[in-house]
Amino acid sequence: MKLFYRIKHFISKLYNFIKPFKDDRLNLFIFISIFLFVAYSAKLLSLSHFNRNFWIHLVEKQFEGAIKVASERGKIFDRNGIPLAASEKVISFYIRPTEAEDKELLLKILLRKPEVIKKYLREKGSLTPENVKKITQRLEVFSLISDEEINKAYEKKYTIVKVKGDNGKHKEIKVPFVWLKKDLSISRKKAFKAVSTALRIYYTLSGENRFRKKYPDLLGYISEFQRVYPYSVGSVIVGVTNKMGEGLSGLEFILEKEKVITGDTVLLSGQKDARGRVYLGKEASIFLTKKKGNNVVTTIDGNLQYIFEKTLKKYGEEWHPKFINAVLMDPYTGEIIAASSYPFYDYGEKKDRSFISKLNPRFITAPYEPGSVMKPIVIAAAINEGVVTKDTIIDCPANYKVGNKVFHNEFHGRNVKLRTWEIIQYSDNVGVIKVVQKLGKEKYYRYLKAFGFGSKTGIDLPGENSGKLRNWKKWRDVEFATLAFGHNILTTTLQLAAAYSVLVNGGYYVKPKILSAIVDEKGKILKRFPSIKERRVISEKTSKIMRRILTMVVEGGTGTGTKFQNFFVGGKTGTALKYDPQIRQYSKSKITATFVGAFPMTNPRYVLAVTVDEPKVPKNMLWASKIAVPLFRELSERVLLYERVAPDKREYILMKNGEIVSKEINQDFILKNGIQSSKISH
To answer: Which string of b and e fits 567-601 if b means at least 16 CB within 10 Å?
Structure first.
């Protein structure tokens, strides 16, 4: 009401101002003119100031994204600064076939027909051999486009795009814009010369007035970016992009989702007419952004990654397994130094039907029953709880019944007594069952969770599987027994690497990580990814004991194939029979072989986990000691040589007389055997 009275007061004042004039018609004219001026001024002020953002937004809505082009993505580096993924500037040509009145002429120009070039120069009055050569060289770029590609572009005529309307819904429209050739590695200068020369010839010979045409750029080019992988390694980790530069897998996918390596969205936009049609013109360049994405530094060592991939491929081609996984991890920082899954996609190979499956990082996506590699987890938990010591004597009968199932020890019908650490060395099922029974269901479950089983590690890669671990309240006695040696539980290769890191790093669960830092294009660090000790799982004392126990597996147990002359290596084999749904029982011909270990064991720098699933080998080789162990040994040997790790077992000293003397280091690290090695193949 106050506003109403103010307006009434203003009009009254205005009327009194013009009242002195004698002519009423003049008074009325002046009144109306002043009122309209005031109203117009108020409206203008509203448009320019108060509602400025609203009207700018409304104008911007007249321009709709039509053709998306690839922006410059940030680089992905390995830990040494080697670029694993980068963006290369490329040129893409487009054409508007429906807008050309003389299509045959345009086709001849693109094909660089000599008669057309000579006719153009003749009209210009400059027909000389030098000018013919000059024009031909400028058009030489179009030799990269085949006749078939040109004809296909003419046949297509339009590009169908989805455009968001005023109502918020998307609709398909026809844009007179067709890609002629994409991703050519040529300079913008050459592209500009070729396009400008071709258009100049066309408009001269056709007689058309280009400035009266709706689309004067019948032919044009766009500078965009193509993803390249210079080092050609790590496809299951780094991933790939599609033709539009969008991440499809690996870090390319996850970092794009988190908007880390992507620049602003780049769209070729055009003005929308009254019918809602979008056309592209010179004004489109206004909406192209130059902002690139940030760079990312990973924990991966590109050289070791190359070694891992070549080694896995060698064994894969020999054994023809479903898959092979290998993960190399720093047990103290959680850094993934190398990780691969075979079969993997080679950046140089053709993208066939198996392309997507080869990008699968199976070390995080393919859970499996791990087998005996779980036994050290049981022993570590039992020692940490004080249920047993490393030297506790455990009766291990030849046959041991749990519920309605009879389990057999590894000593071929002999009743034996084993110290706790010997149960691991000889991989005895009965011994580990009796230890886990002492520990109890609830405590064992609690330790399994603390070691990371049944939960995702949280690594920055897509598709991670948490595995499977049932609640201890649902365990039957037989299930509880088999859980002690790695059945009725599903885990991934990365989970095993993280769990064994706990065994050797002093007892902490360290979160695995594959990203080190985010860096802008000027080299400024925007974000660091610190190592995270999530929880203490076992004591430092227990961890030291487990190092020595795992070492005994290699020195005189089931993992002797990984024994080195100059280095202590510790680990555990695991041979898990696979359940066959067709026969509804575990198959004797299908196994998953695993070896997880650490080295050098007196001060572990690396944890390495390898998994081989369903290798096609003779029956006498269906053991982890025959499959996983040789693979582990070769990979660990290559790592030790590459990193030039100092020996922790034996060193060689050059004497003054030129003689080389061998000297043992850490002689007391090895535990003393009570039972001589038997023919055990776990």
So the answer is: bbbbbbbbbbbbeeeeeeeeeeebbbbbbbbbbbb
Task: Say what the pLDDT of residue 558 is.
Answer: 85
Q: Is 181 helix (H, G, I), strand (E, B) or coil?
A: strand
pLDDT tens-place string over residues 360-369: 999 999 999 9
What's the CA gap between 337 and 311, in Å, rounded? 16
Judge contact between 153 and 95, C-beta under 8 A: yes
Give the count of alpha carbons within 13 A of 222, CB side only. 30
Q: What is the DSSP letter of 46?
A: I
User: What does the alpha-carbon distance between residue 379 and residue 392 come to, in Å, rounded to a whole number?
Assistant: 11
Domains in the chain: ranges and CATH: 66-298 (3.90.1310.10), 302-350+365-669 (3.40.710.10)
**Sole residue written with tokens 């993924």:** 85
C-alpha distances (whole Å) from 430 to each of 396, 400, 463, 484, 591 are 6, 7, 37, 10, 21
The β-bridge partners of 340 are 326
Q: Could you tell me which residues come within 8 angstroms of residue 215 by beta carbon, excluding any fewer than 6 positions away?
A: 96, 99, 176, 279, 280, 281
**Cβ-contact 129, 220 below 8 angstroms:** no
CA distance 595 to 515: 26
Residue 168: predicted pLDDT: 65
Q: Provide the token pair at 677.
A: 């090695």
Q: What is the mean pLDDT of residues 629-646?
A: 96
Q: State both tokens at 598.
A: 């650490």
Least confident of 123-132, 144-153, 421-430: 144-153
**111-115, 462-466, 467-471: which has the minimum mean pLDDT?**
111-115
- Give which of 70, 92, 267, 243 is closest to 182, Cα–Cα: 92
How many CA atoms, within 13 angstroms, populate the side-chain half-sphere of residue 377? Answer: 31
pLDDT per position as a tens digit, 40-73:
666 666 655 555 555 455 444 444 444 555 568 8
Mean predicted confidence (pLDDT) in 146-158: 77
